[in-house]
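Hey,

The postdoc asked me to send both predictions to you directly instead of through the lab channel. I've kept everything plain text so nothing gets mangled by the mail client. Protein one:
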Amino acid sequence: MKLFGSLSEKTDLDEKLRHYRRAGHVVPSKKMIKTPEQIEGIRRSAAVNTAVLDMVAEHIRAGMSTGEIDRLVYDFTVSHGAVPAPLNYEGFPKSVCTSINEEVCHGIPDDDIVLQEGDIINVDVSTILEGYYSDASRMFMIGKVRPSWKRLVEVTKECLERGVAAARPWGFLGDIGEAIQSHAEANGYSVVRDFCGHGVGLQFHEKPEVEHVGKRGHGMLLVPGMVFTIEPMINMGGYEVYVDSDNEWTVLTEDGMPSAQWENTILITDSGVEILTY
């Protein structure tokens, strides 16, 4: 990976951005393009974030409460010198989001919510290490899951993989959205519109917004040094969702059908893309 280390390379980048801007394209601001030093900090944070999810994968099981998952995430993160980014973020009360079955995202862990055989759950982990942020989530299938739900989880992961594959330097955000949307809809699923991926690294949520629907060749230009999440939320039924009025956080499908989500933080490089979190 090589990211404009010299003055001449930076000048070339600036000229290329001016060219695209003159051609009528939306180009990222300088704040959206991370320096090599910042990228190294984000990469270190991402390594801890991945380790947290690996730890969850080792422990998650039927009979475990989501409150227990939250405590495991907090203890592991802090023991590695980092901080769980969700904790107290805009009032969110826990260290991780745990979203089960028809819950789309932002599920709040609770000792009274116990995983059952056949559940599918998204565990969404975000980490701050030395001021740098990273963000990723995985789906887990608890015990024997009905085949249609298993297929939803698998296709959603494929959607993420296709979105990542479509993210290329000097391509467009719309390329990512089109890749995800076309694969989801070809398999009979819908893509949640109300939530999207986002820039990350120096803050929890930065620009740009990364939509999971779109049209190839449209949207913001993708430039080496950009760091953002791709995190498609794919529903078995319609894409309509609502926020639980009881806790004002948990998002659920309007029709009560199951939803799945996978998420990576990625870096746009000079030659392609680097997945920072798994």
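Protein two:
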Amino acid sequence: MKDATIDSVAVIGAGAWGSALANAIASQGRQVVIWAREAEVVESINRKRENDIFLPGVTLAPSIRATGDIADVASADAVFLAAPAQHIRNTAMALASCVGERSPILVLCAKGIEEGSLKLLSQVLDEIFNDINAVALSGPTLAGEVARGLPTALVVACENEDTGKAVMEVVHGAALRPYLSDDITGVQIGGALKNIFAIACGIVIGRELGENAHAALLSRGFAEMLEYGSAVGARRETLMGLSGLGDLVLTCNARTSRNMSLGMALGRGESLEEVLKRRRSVSEGVFTARAACELGGKLGVSMPIIEALSGVLFAGESVDTGIERLLARPLRRE
């Protein structure tokens, strides 16, 4: 097991969230190395002190150094994995090839369920690294607000308390307040599923179906999250906290969020292909919807919203058909 002392920090993934997180950590006086896949992002951060592609308008701390060589982050005591969820496996394998027998503390910052394997991201890391204590960092966190130093609360989840506390010390700052949890399954489920429901809420807004429908979908989505979480071993109280209900409320109401804004475009009549084609950033809920739908089916979980959305995203069903399917379900107790 990796020692819990953290002296050096690296971030893999220089999208909006990875850059904002690196900036928050660096603002506490730490040196941070951030890896970016795009050469233009590396140049922008190092030369202009700004990620003008994914986080424009935010001045990054001078103690952040960007690199395009993943070997440059391999010596860090803690590596924050902020790559998209569906890229975590390949990213972790590339990192593993550089660290050898040494295992840094790995902090998952992506939110999703892996397609194909239907595994949580911590389970993916367990396959690749030996003797590891994965950490999940989640909660209601819009990257732009974190980057601007606005007050934010989040959850650090790890089965090993000492490791979790060490990561809390790294992310804790004047505007960032972390809470500790040992329910890494629950924290990941909350973060993954809220993106799906945010797309659905976006469709409601884009279709101009009203605030009643928005509130109904959000609350029924939360009920679906609780049932889903119970089936995979998540604790109910975890999902009622920051990483479940908190993140759900934020993402299902923030029209600037990638998932909700994607849903709004679908509600206005755009196709999924059209929306994704013009975006460089990833809307995690799209891919997680398919994985969650498949996993939920195997677990026998009732998930009408996830199923209806999956039909719209992947089975060619119209938005109106998905809405009609939900409204026509048999009457039941709440």
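Summary for protein two, as requested: The beta strands are 9-12, 32-35, 64-67, 78-81, 105-108, 135-138, 152-157, 176-181.

Thanks,
C.
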